[in-house]
């Protein structure tokens, strides 16, 4: 790469070359976010007045807060945090610590050989032991796994867990883990050849209070259809930007079960995975509640299958939203011991509010605007779009450099990107609202 371009990219990722304390970044981010919000409020005064003529002033303030002020504040804080983020280098990128990988599997006969083959290709020089927990499969998951492990020369232990539920399967496997660190991996998730190495390198380079490291999960089946193409950008930019910001403040809120690394003793101390629809969310918050920290490693990449039909997509994302409410009920943000995690978990308290307003006010307001009634969707709404684009552009630069280091290429997916920017939230918010209602009314859990 040309030296000048390289320096420009490095500057755009970290325009502040000197080390800045995390607490300073946190305060600075909020100061800028407050200033942006005050500017938005000032500019939106005519909008508030016009809307109040139809719905009263308190309702107008409530609505516009959910549409513009709160999202604008959160997006500004994230943008500033990303600009200030500087991922420290690992002390040793080639660790040799023994690792155990837990795979909870149910009816994964088609996928399991491919998953195991990517584990076998790891450039990790330490010992890798795989524990597959067969959770009442009715196909040949067990037989296919054993056959593949013999062919690939993998150290594989197959267990059976008759009780349904991923948390039961993982806890069954946890009892057999003897290594200091362990990973969880979904049976349909494929590891980049350096995935294990970078996760272990990150946790070994981190302070002793770091108990887990979440990996970067990307989409492997984005060529299937348009829904998968849109989700590719959600994982690549949306989810990655949130995790990167949370990782900066040492409180990644979800060490996802699909692909994360944990210290074994920490997992056992909190009792393993809880009986919850969002077991990985509740587990992570339980770890944070202990005063431990959870990091995010963007260089540790895995590729997962995403839903390719709307029914399965809605079921997955409503389950995620329900899991967030479940975690809030079990672990209150103000009970978190660290200031950063109090804030990060506390942000989730406003998510139902913004999703509710977006679903029941903004979307109808967009329809009204189409017919020439600009009561709800007004000029200030547009201020959120540049911030969103800026945050995604910053992440795109990060991801592009990461992909180059991993010898990966970013797929050309312009249509998916346009739809992701303009319409994805219109799909996500109503689905999230359904998940909130399911949890609040305690409807039957559906995995």
Automatic annotation (TrEMBL):
InterPro entries: Nucleotide-diphossugar_trans. Signal peptide: none annotated. SUPFAM superfamilies: Nucleotide-diphospho-sugar transferases. The keyword Glycosyltransferase applies. Keywords: Glycosyltransferase, Membrane, Transferase, Transmembrane, Transmembrane helix. The chain crosses the membrane at residues 26-49, 55-84, 356-376, 382-403, 415-437. GO terms for molecular function: glycosyltransferase activity. CDD domains: CESA_like. It comes from the Bacteria. Belongs to the glycosyltransferase 2 family. This is Glycosyltransferase. It comes from Heliobacterium mobile (Heliobacillus mobilis). The lineage of its organism: Bacteria, Bacillati, Bacillota, Clostridia, Eubacteriales.
